[in-house]
């Protein structure tokens, strides 16, 4: 166990994140569409998100128990910053999307860890969200143009945009309600 999050805390974090994301798309669809359309090719967002992912990965690599692979820790601690700098230098296309995918992959583990060995059936709300993060993260890291296509599809009309974000809001509210009452 690396993060020591309870299921309730993980539920609060996931529920608040999804609720705020859904609420922003429902209340201000024009502004959120404009922001979403600029995200995939934003160099600044890519730098910020990749830097967060780098520090999170570096911290994990430096502190986690590696067992029989502990001999690889020092070389990996050297390779990770070099890889970070090389990615910043040579990966210009959709850097923000790839970085967001990496963060999704990193964020799934604490959610799954918090739900591990819990008996409540409502833990599946958090678990399903974590596996969605993994699948989406894998697709966005390997095929980042998909986020642009997903944004263009959902932003084709304000009704579709609001409907999509209302589903996100409702899912976040369900996780939040379970975090308050069940976990």
Describe it.
- The radius of gyration is 18 Å and the shape is flat.
- 79% of the residues lie in helices and 0% in strands.
- α1 packs antiparallel against α5, α1 packs antiparallel against α8 and α5 packs antiparallel against α6 (123-142).
- It is built from eight helices and no strands.
- The chain has helices at residues 7-27, 29-38, 43-63, 73-90, 95-115, 123-142, 145-154, 158-181.
- The mean pLDDT is 91.
- The longest helix has 24 residues, at 158-181.
- It has one domain (7-181).
- By secondary structure, it is mostly helical.
Q: What's the rounded overall pLDDT mean?
A: 91
Q: Judging from the principal axes of the Cα atoms, what is the shape?
A: flat
Radius of gyration: 18 Å
Largest sheet: none
> How many helices?
8
In total, how many domains does the architecture comprise? 1
- What is the element string, with H for helices and E for strands? HHHHHHHH
Structural class: mainly alpha
List keywords for this structure.
single chain; 183 residues; mainly alpha; 8 helices
Please sum up the structure shown.
This protein has helices at residues 7-27, 29-38, 43-63, 73-90, 95-115, 123-142, 145-154, 158-181.
Topology:
Blueprint: H1 7-27, H2 29-38, H3 43-63, H4 73-90, H5 95-115, H6 123-142, H7 145-154, H8 158-181
Helix pairs in contact: 1-2, 1-5, 1-8, 3-4, 3-5, 5-6
